[in-house]
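Postdoc handover notes: sequence design on the structure in folder B. Input tokens:
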């Protein structure tokens, strides 16, 4: 979709998950206009989302918000070479700029008193959704740059091109182009009448139980990935796989594709490498979830929580 002025009509998107719906026109038709990019990157009215070693620049507090810098302030910082055009809001350009090369960002004069670098996963749910989405977008794109400095074909260094949406191999005999990665993962709530299947992985916070999830493999449809993952992790056979919604999850590089699946068997057999426990929960048990160290639901900004809540409240 390259059309000028494309902006997703949020009112018509009836299922928006957190970190989606950033409200920018990605303006991909401008990514090759180097003169325009340079002038916008330096402009006082342009807004810059800073990323430092996967952390986001935020004004912290009870109601955190992104700490934007102007383009003009940003280009005064030394050694900038990793940036991308995020898009436009009206005439205003938004950029992501990675300043990971600066050892102590808090010592940079432009940043003093403006905010702190924090892990977006810690503050994300407290941000206005549109701004949380912008920070996640910037983080995901800058992470990709940080991991693709060398060509996967010939091993030569790569260079950023097309407004930060391509990394071009610098070897004239290769010239391979590398594009930003988003790894598809399926996430699914398995239901059986009035009960649903929730699992617990060792890495979860205390008491948390959630939907099952896993990466889509090459040569596999999303429905096949749902069926395979549920069987591998919990030994349950499922059918009637239905799509719900999706969520960008750039922590570091996923898109979560949410599904419901109906169980065709009941006996759970967990894969101990994936889960420490899985259980059937009645709708009532989920509704009465104490959110304690005994039983809590996934974080409110996750699609897992959305899948569970929509099912519990009969919106599935
Ligand atoms: Zn190469």
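Designed sequence:
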């Amino acid at each position: 979709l390259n059309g000028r002025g494309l902006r997703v009509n949020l009112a018509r998107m009836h299922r928006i998950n957190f970190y989606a719906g950033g409200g920018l026109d990605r303006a991909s038709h401008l990514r090759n206009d180097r003169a325009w990019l340079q002038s916008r990157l330096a402009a006082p009215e342009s807004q810059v989302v800073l990323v430092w070693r996967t952390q986001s620049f935020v004004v912290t507090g009870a109601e955190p918000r992104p700490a934007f810098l102007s383009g003009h302030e940003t280009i005064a910082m030394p050694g900038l070479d990793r940036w991308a055009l995020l898009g436009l809001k009206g005439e205003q350009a938004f950029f992501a700029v990675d300043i990971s090369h600066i050892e102590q960002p808090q010592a940079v004069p432009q940043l003093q008193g403006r905010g702190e670098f924090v892990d977006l996963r810690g503050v994300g749910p407290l941000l206005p959704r549109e701004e949380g989405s912008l920070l996640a977008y910037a983080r995901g794109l800058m992470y990709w740059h940080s991991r693709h400095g060398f060509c996967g074909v010939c091993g030569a260094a790569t260079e950023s091109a097309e407004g930060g949406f391509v990394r071009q191999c610098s070897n004239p005999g290769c010239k391979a182009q590398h594009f930003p990665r988003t790894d598809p993962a399926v996430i699914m709530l398995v239901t059986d009448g009035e009960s649903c299947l929730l699992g617990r992985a060792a890495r979860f916070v205390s008491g948390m139980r959630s939907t099952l999830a896993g990466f889509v493999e090459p040569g596999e449809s999303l429905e096949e990935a749902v069926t395979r993952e549920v069987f591998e992790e919990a030994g349950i056979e499922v059918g009637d796989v239905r799509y719900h919604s999706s969520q960008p999850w750039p922590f570091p590089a996923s898109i979560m594709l949410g599904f419901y699946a109906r169980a065709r068997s009941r006996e759970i057999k967990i894969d101990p490498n994936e889960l420490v426990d899985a259980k059937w929960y009645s709708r009532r048990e989920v509704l009465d979830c104490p959110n304690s160290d005994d039983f809590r639901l996934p974080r409110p900004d996750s699609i897992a929580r959305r899948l569970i809540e929509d099912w519990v409240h009969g919106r599935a």
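Context for whoever picks this up: The CA atoms of residues 233 and 250 lie 23 Å apart. Don't rerun without checking with the PI first.
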